[in-house]
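Dear colleague,

Thank you for sharing your sequence with our group. We've completed the structure prediction you requested, and as agreed, I am returning the results in plain text so they can be pasted directly into your records. Please verify that the sequence below matches your submission; if there's any discrepancy, let me know and we will rerun it promptly.
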Amino acid sequence: MVQRRKAVSVYAQEIHPGRNKYPDGGWAMARLDSGAIAVIESIWHLPESTPYQIDARMEVIGTEGALYINCGEAGLEIHDGAGNHLPDTLYWPNVFGQRFGILRAELRYFADCVVAGQRPDRITPEESRAAVALLAAAEESSRTGAVVRL
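Please find the predicted structure tokens below.
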């Protein structure tokens, strides 16, 4: 059985270049109840010359191994006169004018659960609430400059 860990505190920073209301980049470090540390990074200001449409990666590094997930390298690389391109083929691709991919499947699953009045079993509402609470605490930490306890 997988043991789920909870965040107990978070410290975060954001950058707001120019007069942007919303951050173009953010970093958060959360302490988990196991003593482990989780680091979250979100960057929106990648240069136009970035060869991929989405940079979605995750690393889980433990004492006995590591897990690396890279949704940005989805098996298609194009080299042409304009440069190197790695189109999104997994996350939110537009194929023949329609959206497909894992984000669409995630949204469809949630909508189907709502319509059927069924409790989601892939992720619980409690787990979703905890993720939103962590991000809200990270926003507070970035605003105040202090570590926020959950």
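Summary note from our side: Helices lie at 102-116, 125-144.

Kind regards,
the structure core
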